[in-house]
């Protein structure tokens, strides 16, 4: 309860000031939360997604394809690459450095984390545009 120090005539009037301390406390907590989470949001792997649902890839120019098989073998084009050398091979590949573009074709049974690691390695190697190759989805069975 606030005390009003003043004349006796002011004792009958209510105090009309707002206590802003709780407001400032809440705002500081929110500021700290946003400052901590903002760098975490930007550390993800950026992928350029197509705007159309289905669109055939043009075959006029052969694109560089990075394939990951069910056995977790990695191929750049037709050459097999050990996983620990993937980033170095992509960084020294002339087509990757010129086009800054790679298409990723990964087996459906692979864990999501492995595919994200491969995408992050490609991004660190200088790939700016990463396309995803999928098969045309067949009609799902009715339940």
Would you kindly provide a written description of the structure presented here, covering whatever features stand out?
With 143 residues, this protein is an alpha/beta fold. Helix content is 33%, strand content 14%. It contains four helices and five strands; from the N terminus they run αβββααβαβ. It has a five-stranded mixed sheet with strand order 3-2-1-4-5. The chain starts with 20 loop residues before the first helix and ends in an 11-residue tail after the last strand. The model is unreliable at 44-52 (pLDDT under 50).
What would the keywords be for this entry?
single chain, 143 residues, alpha/beta, 5-stranded mixed β-sheet, 4 helices, 5 strands, 33% helix
Bulk shape: elongated
Across the major sheet, the strand order is 3-2-1-4-5
Strand content: 5-15%
With helices defined by DSSP (H or I, 4 residues minimum), what is the helix count? 4
| Mean pLDDT figure | 77
Low-confidence stretches: 44-52
How do the SSEs run, as a string of H and E? HEEEHHEHE
Query: What is the C-alpha radius of gyration, as a whole number of Å?
Result: 29 Å
Distance between the termini: 65 Å
- Structural class, judged by helices and strands? alpha/beta
Helical amount: 25-40%
How would a textbook summarize the main sheet?
A: 5 strands, mixed
Number of strands: 5
